């Protein structure tokens, strides 16, 4: 017991630091580490997607086929939505609204009302394979979806009508992001290409030069000027982010 107490005192005096190992072998100290908070489980299986809903709430989806809305500070689950037949792959929300969207391996996208019933208020079927991209227009009137079936679709949120469908060979969509305040959607793909779609005609407005590895996600700065894409690396090379 005495030895244990002494060890406890010793450990309490040690200052731990995060260390970052660079490729050249140098070590950079980045300051004292703070222990990560781990909240109670919200899903009964792995969490596959998470997104901000409000400054205090987040939405998540997982292998348990459900969509959950949580208070991220306390970890409390406020709402749970049930309707998908397979794993939820992506979640997002409409700007300044109470609407939540989820994509799934069941080839569909569903819309949920934060203050509505536990069932979906709108369904968007139409893809032939798992839906892997999901983005809502800035005015919250349209939805863009992408899939491993090589297609990108545009939908009317209120009616659920498919307003357009475009296919590009080998365009296995991994992520979609709507450019703030613009009619453009950025998309990453397993073909290592980042494409910018004009949502009005659902045509590719620009394609950046192909990257070295499969691009797994993308995001756009609030001013719409910068695009960030990421990859998970391959063949022993680590992941990377490109602006």
Strand order of the largest sheet: 3-4-5-6
Structural class by sheet pairing and helices: mainly beta
Mean pLDDT: 86
- The radius of gyration computed from the alpha-carbon positions, rounded to a whole number of angstroms, is 21 Å
**pLDDT under 50 segments (min length 5)?**
1-27
Main β sheet profile: 4 strands, antiparallel
Number of helices: 1
Level of helix content? under 10%
Q: Mind telling me the CATH class of the largest domain? A: Mainly Beta
Task: Spell out the helices and strands N to C.
Answer: HEEEEEEEEEEEEEEEEEEEEE
Question: How many structural units, i.e. domains?
Answer: 2
Name given to the CATH architecture of the largest domain? 7 Propeller
Shape: globular
What fraction strand?
A: over 45%
Q: How many DSSP E strands?
A: 21
What is the CATH topology descriptor of the largest domain? Methylamine Dehydrogenase, Chain H
């Amino acid at each position: 017991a005495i030895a244990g107490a002494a060890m406890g005192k010793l450990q309490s005096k040690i200052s731990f630091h995060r260390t970052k190992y660079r490729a050249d072998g140098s070590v950079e100290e980045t300051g004292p580490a703070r222990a990560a908070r781990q909240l109670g489980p919200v899903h009964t299986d792995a969490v596959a997607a998470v997104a901000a809903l409000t400054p205090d709430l987040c939405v998540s989806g997982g292998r348990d086929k459900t969509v959950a809305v949580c208070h991220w500070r306390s970890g409390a689950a406020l709402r749970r939505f049930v309707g998908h037949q397979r794993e939820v792959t992506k979640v997002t929300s409409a700007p300044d609204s109470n609407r939540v969207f989820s994509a799934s391996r069941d080839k569909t996208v569903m819309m949920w009302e934060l203050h509505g019933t536990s069932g979906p208020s709108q369904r968007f079927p139409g893809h032939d394979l798992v839906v892997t991209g999901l983005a809502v227009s800035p005015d919250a009137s349209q939805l863009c979806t992408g899939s491993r079936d090589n297609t990108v679709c545009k939908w009317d949120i209120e009616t659920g009508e498919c307003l357009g469908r475009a296919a590009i060979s080998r365009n296995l969509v991994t992520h979609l992001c709507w450019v703030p305040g613009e009619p453009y959607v950025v998309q990453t793909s397993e073909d290592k290409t980042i494409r910018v779609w004009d949502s009005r005609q659902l045509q590719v407005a620009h394609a950046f030069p192909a990257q070295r590895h499969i691009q797994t996600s993308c995001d756009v700065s609030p001013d719409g000027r910068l695009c960030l894409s990421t990859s998970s690396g391959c063949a022993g090379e680590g992941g990377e982010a490109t602006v």
